[in-house]
Amino acid sequence: MSSRRATTIATAITGSLLTASFSAVMILSFAATADDQGPGSSKGGKAMDAAPAGVKLTTLLPERISVDNSSKKTAITATVKNEGTKGSGELNLLVVGFDGLKVNGVQGCSAVAEKDLPPGSNSGFTCPVGTLAAGKSKSYAVDATYDLGKAGKICLPVMSADGKKTFWQQGPVPFGTTNPSPNAPATPLLLGTDNKPVAPGGDTLPKTGVGSDVLPLGAAGAALIAAGAAGLYWSQRPPRRQIQRG
């Protein structure tokens, strides 16, 4: 083999290795910065009013989120899904925050007026989902803040477009940790876990747990999930005040 040809082959191999190395770095970099919220979960959800025949609606929340300890900011992905065999018809998804978890914005959605929020909640957005075909889902990026000195919960009701029926409701379900890390850059929180707040400049506060967190609106006299088949708080309002106007 001539020295010129050997040099050409060596150069080609070196170039291929460099390209492969560059591609590997790009893949690893992308993986490192990708969303780390884990798989979606319907934990804390239940069917409410009967959905149309062939329609099976559910929602999904990430199994874990991370709260920046300086800014208190966090990001949550809220997903509504039709696991049935037929189209859902027009739907609205609501994203509602409670206690330490405040929803500041939801991509493509409108804020719920304060007077239309259920007692006990601090924020809410309504999202016009439209019709979900069988097996299809739609996800929304939720911008929120979390005061780690409190417990925090979120609620995802799926309603008919006219607001008269609530087909599915996830929550109010907590995000929290029993192992606070106030000195770390961020605190990871798990879905379905009661938060154990950290006292400012000291040890932890008593756990704001099962006794006070389960169905907090019930204690306030107006639970989101009413007894029996009464349904969602909003479904009991006169039609002229339905949230989907926004």
Note the topology.
Layout: H1 3-33, E1 40-41, E2 45-47, E3 57-62, E4 64-68, E5 73-82, E6 90-99, E7 101-106, E8 110-111, E9 121-131, E10 137-146, E11 152-160, E12 166-176, E13 186-191, H2 210-213, H3 216-219
Helix proportion of residues, in percent?
10-25%
The separation of the N and C termini measures 76 Å
Based on Cα principal axes, name the global outline.
globular
Strand content: 35-45%
Radius of gyration: 23 Å
Catalogue the unreliable spans: 2-35, 201-246
Number of strands: 13
Order of helices and strands: HEEEEEEEEEEEEEHH
How many H/I helical runs?
A: 3
Structural class: alpha+beta
Major β-sheet profile: 8 strands, antiparallel
Averaged pLDDT: 76
Descriptive overview:
Helix content is 16%, strand content 37%. It is globular, with a radius of gyration of 23 Å. The N terminus and C terminus are likely disordered.
Summary keywords:
246 residues; alpha+beta; eight-stranded antiparallel beta sheet; five-stranded antiparallel beta sheet; 3 helices; 16% helix; globular; disordered N terminus
Summarize the structure.
This protein is of the alpha+beta class.
